[in-house]
Every structure is written in structure tokens, then in C-alpha cells.
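Trying the structure run again after the queue cleared.
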Amino acid sequence: MIRTNKHHWALLLLASIAAYLLAQAIFPEQSVVLVRAITVVALIALATVYLLHLRIETQLTRQLEESEKSVQTILDGIADPTIIVDKEFRITAMNNAARDALPDNVAVDGPVHCYRALHGLEQPCSPSERTCAMQSGQSGKEIQMSTDDDGRNRHVEIRSTPLHDEAGTLSGVIEVVHNLNEQEEIALKLERARVNAATANRARSEFISTMSHEVRTPMNAVLGMADLLRLSDLKRKQETYVQIIESSGNMLLSLVDNMLDFSTLESGKLVLHKEEFLVADLLEQVLKIMGYQAYSKGLELIGDSQDDLRRCISADAQRLRQILINLLGNAIKFTNTGEIVVKVEIEGEEPGPALLIVEVEDSGIGMSEETLASLFDPFMRAADGNGHVQEQGSGLGLAISKQLVDLMGGEVNISSELGQGTRARLSVPVDLVPESDAAATHRGPVLKTRRMLVVDDNDRISRVLCRNLMNWGMQCESVRSPGDVLGILAAAQADGQSFDGVIIDFDLPESNGLALARAIRAGSVAAYLPMILLTSIARSLEVGEISSIGGIRCVNKPILPSELRHNLFKVLEVDDWQGKHAEEDELKELRILIAEDNPLNRKLLSRMLESLGHSVECADNGPAALRAFEENSHDLILMDCQMPGLDGDEVTQRIRDRTVEGVRQPIIVAVTADISAEHKSKCLAAGMDDFLAKPIRLQVLKSGLRRWSSLIGDAASTADESEQSPQIEQDQQIVARLRDRAGDDGTFINDYIDLFLRDTATRLEIMRAAVEHEDQVTLGRECHALKGACLEVGVPRLGVCCDALQHASKNQQFDAVATALLRLIEEFERVTPLFEAEKNASPSRSLREL
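Done. C-alpha cells:
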């Protein structure tokens, strides 16, 4: 740059001299003096400027050298190797540490490039392989492995920072190479371990979720077909086979639930869901699932309770069932002989908070104090009496049970001694609800005055049997020895107190139940006495062995009170109409569309629905389901969530988008093997009305059909009422529905009405704001939620208004949205006085006033 400026000044000087000589040659002599004077002045000025420039340039050069020296000093002060790279990837500066660290072979003729010096490459780094600040314009760092002078592998961190000029244009990059010290190596290993653990945890969760879905799909066919088999005419041995299939299938599902819940609990996303159910049903389900596992080992499994447990509670039935299965499975695993007893009781008499207490007691090998201390640790497997670790099971059951109990606010305690068996005690807070109609019916007088003789050498089984019989109003007497039975029957007949029947355990000392039954039939005293034989699910009896005796029915152990009672009705020839649910006989025929791509599941669901008397149409993919919806009218659509062409969510959204005012839409139920809360929310957000998890059991399907049939009936009557019924008649129907749903409980009616009115008013305010901001997502969600509440309470016209508002919003008919919202508000204001009048007519006060 200096050389170039000197040339410029030389040219200016030559130009001035040339101008002077030219002026002398051209101008007359009288002008020479003036020209000379101007030229001298110009030369003096030029010389002055030149000298001034030389001084400034010298100062700038000195400052530049000092600046470069200062930058170099700063670079050399950095302990780590540091280089500065220009836009052409050339190293323009480096510190002493970099000179010492760079390989000798990079100092070749020509510029040294960073990619060769740092990475040994012959061309710039690929952005897909490593982060390059020159290409991305962003700071970054990268960890590499290198070998030091001693041949040891060390981690090296390369930090890159882009440099920009005053205009903000990228001008280069500064790169620092840092050798990690021991502490940083440890920190790096910990960070990588954390990342790997998080990755492994995500992979495990995805794997468990996928496996849960993949297992539930075939189990849907297995257990569903077992339900259909039960509806057919089965022989005794075939019924036992079906029960074994159900027991094993449910055990497999329990294992899948354990794995899925373990992952969900770890993430803190598991949510409890309350529902009303009978404690007796919970106990029977658990005994039925675990029965084959117990009796295949020759164990007795006994359900013991203080009463018949026909009491209704509100809690998470699925989680409670899972906990009991885990506790029972652990007891069976470590018990080789003897019995396992499940005792259940409820602390609490009046509706409200209560305590469910369950004890599982076994006669197994017991556990040491060391084993007890770590019993609830994940993947822990207890040792047997000889110190051998049990390899059966996943080691997750008790750990998950403990976490679930903690989540419920309960306690679980396990006490045990080696060789003395184990006792597990579970206590969980629940809500006791008013006695159901089923419970009241169950205690009907149909079995009163009947007298039974129980023959069993197991005192615990005898006590449980007699307690159940007496709960049903029957009289009971028990005997241990089969040799005393004939004498007892004869004495009772002589006293005029003959027995109406005999319950005999197959496993009796000195003989078996069949031999005793034959002896009773062969005698003259009780030749025609009805009998029930208690047999093991794991023992298969030949058909001829039973039929040859006559007047005898078999009941598999473990003894389920509902099955025992049903067989008592049969063998005693008593009409059990009081034990039936009237609503099961009142279900009307529905037109149902099944959208399912799996042909086996499609066939299974069709058979189930047809066996219940419904009309069924099938579609094997999403587009076919849409065509079927357009061509035919359906009351209900069972929608598989994963189908080719269009998935269930998208099909549902398209159906909901085609809402026409005055035309009733079908109830849409999601049918899926994905039972996660996130998936359920996704289905409901898509516009589905309910959720049915695979595997689909016949009883669960029946219960769902009753619920959906009610919704369909409400929606269907709405269309008729809106066109045909006078206003007064419609209002009378609203009040009638409300009273029907609430019963005679005035307190419940008051709170029910208050909750509905308050919730609806809140939702209407949210809808107003959503309409103002054209928030279709919020408006659709609130319309869907309010529609469900309206149909449940018994005001389906409000539900129709919700449909109209949601339809107008989805189709961006903004003029119609305001009108639809106004209609909805007006209808709510019209029915509000009806609810208020019904509340004021009730003599009871609300819970808030008590």
C-alpha cells in the first residue's frame, strides 16, 4: 500500500514539471514569471502534502504493527491452540500453542487451510458431518478424539466463533482447540450418559407403547372369540378351556399394563380415572383372572369378605384390579402348597369418603428382612427359601403397585417371615355411593328359606360359602368328613328339616366329591337332592362322569359368588328374573357401521354385535367408511383409529364437517389398542364421542351400547321434538328426563342443576370470546363438550344448537356463527327457569348449604 502511494506522488511531481516546461514553451515571456510563481507554489504545496502524508502513513503503519503485535500477544496469551481463518478457510494468524500443536506436515508451500490443519482434510468440511461456523455463520463447538504425544486418547473440544466487519458481513472465524482435563472428561462422560439415558428412555417408552398396541390387537381376537364361544352350546370341558384362555389372556394383558404404566409413572403422566363399580365385581374379576394360575399349582384361592360386597364405590377400578393382580401373582409365585386368601372389606357406612381394605395372605415360603427391604424396587426378584433368585416375572408388579397406591393416597404394607408365609395389606381411600339397583335386586327374597349342606374339609372355604348363602337369606350347615354326610341328611329328614341341596368339594379326604355324589344318589334318603360340585379349573372332568349322576352342576374354583348363585338358581329350579338388568332386555336394534381394516377384528366385532341383535355394515378402510356414511344412515360408528387411506381421526373430522342442520349425526366411538391418555384426548378432539379399548370384551361392549343407545335416543328425539312437539310438551319431557336421571334424591337434583347451569354459563362466555377472535379450535372444543353435557342432562335441543354453531364455525360461515350462538344462548335462557323451578321444588338443600 505504501509503495503504491509513492508512485502516485512521483507521477504528480513529474506532471507538475511537465506543466512548467510546457508553459514556458507556449506562453510569451511576460507570462513566464507568473507561471513560474504558480508552479513553485504548487510544488511547495505538493511537497508539504506529501511530507504530511508520509508522516501519517508512518504513524498508521506503526499503529498497525503495534495492533498486530497486540493481537498476537493476546493470541499467545491463550493457553489453548487458537487460529484465525479468513473467508477462504486460510489461517491468517495463530498463537504459539497452535504452532506447537499443529502437525509438521501442514506447513507446506502455499497457504495453510483450517480443514487440513485441524481435521486432516483436503477440502472444506461437509456441513452434514460437522458444524462449520464459516458456513453456518453461527457459533458452535464439537468434541473430537485425538491422540497425545504419549499415545493416549484424549477428547478435544473445538470452539468456532464467526467474525464480522463493521458492515456485519462475515469476514472470518476464530477457532480454539481445547484439550479436556480430567474433570472435564468426567463431566463429558456424565453428560453423554445423561443423553444416552434420555434417548434409551424415549426408545423404551416408544417400544413399550408399540408392543402394548401390537399385543392388544391379537388379544382382541383371542379374548373376543372366547366371549363368543361362551354364547355357544359348550360342554363342561369346553367351558373350562374357554375359562383358561380368558385367564391366561388377561394375565398377559396385565403384564403389558405393568410395562406401560411403569413408563408412564416414570414420566409423571399417569392420571387416575374414577368410575362407579361394585366391590364384588372387582374381587370376582381378580379371582377369575388368577384362578388358573393358582389351581394349576394345586393351591386353593379363596375370596373372603365380611359381607357380599354388593356395595358401590367410586375409584379407579382398572388400577385397583391391576394392583390386586400383582399382589396375588406374587403370592402364587412363592406358594407351593396350601392356600391363598383374599380378604376384602370397606370401612364406612354412609355415602361419602370410605376406605377399601384388601389383605392377601398366603402359606408360602415367606421372605427374609433383606428381601422385604427391597421388595418394591423395580426389577427386583425375591429369593426362595434356599436363597435361589426367582426368574419368573418381570420384577415390576410390586414396584408399580406401590407407586399406584401412593398416587391414590393409600398404603400398602407387606409382612413376612421365612417359612411362615406372607401377608400384604392394601388400604385405599374411595367414595362410597348409594346402593345400586343391582345390589338391591341381588338381595331379593328368591332364595330365602332354602337350606343347604356344605361338604368341605377346608374350614376357610366352608365359612366363606356359608357366609354367602346366609347373605342371600339361606340356611346353611357344614360338615368336614364325607362319611358323615348320609347320616346328617337322614337325620334332617327325620326331624322334618330336610336340606334343599348339597354343595360338595371335589377334593375330599379319603374320597372325592364324585364318589360322595354317587353315594347320595344311590341312597333312598336324598336320591333326588340337587347338588353342586366344586371343582378346580385346572382339572378336566369327563362329561359322562357328571351326566351319569344327574341333578348336579359344576362350579369352578375359585368360587365366584355370582356363578355360585346362578347355579343355585339352576339346580334349585328358582326363577332368577330379579337378578337380571332390565335395561339389557330393553336395548333397541341399532344400525352400526364398523370401520376396521383388520379382517379378524372386523369379523369378531360383527359377530358380537349381531349376537346382541344389531344391524351391522363393515368398511375396511377410511375412504370406504366415508362412502358408507354418505350412502346409508347409521346410529353408531365404531371407528378404528389406524386405517389405510384415511385414519380414524381424519374420517371423523370429515363426517363432523358434513353436519347438516336438522340431520342427526351418528355417535362415533374410537376403537383402538392405544390406551394412552394422549391418544384418548386426540380421539375426542377429533370429534369422537367415546373411547373403546382393545381387546373388546362382550360385557364391556354391552355396557357401551347401553350408554350410546341413550345418547342416540336423546339425539333422535330432539329432531322429532323440534318439528312436532309443542313447547309445553317439550318442557315436560325435559323435566321428566331430569327426574329420571336424578331419581328421588333432592340433594343430588339441586347440585346436579347448579353444576349444569354454572358450567354452561361459563362455556357460553368462552364461546362469545372465541367467536369474537374467530378461534375455531376453542369454539369447536366447547361446542363438543357442551353438547355431551346437554344430552346427559336431557336437553338435546341445546345439543342441536351446539352442532349448528360448530358446523358454521368449521365451514367459516361467519354470518351464521353469530346467529347460531344467539340461538344457543336464547335456548339456554329459555330452559334455565325450568331447572330453577325444579330445584326450588325439591325439599332438600344443596350440599353447599349444609
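The chain has six domains: 2-75, 80-180, 272-439, 444-580, 584-721, 725-849. Worth checking whether this holds up in the mutant runs.
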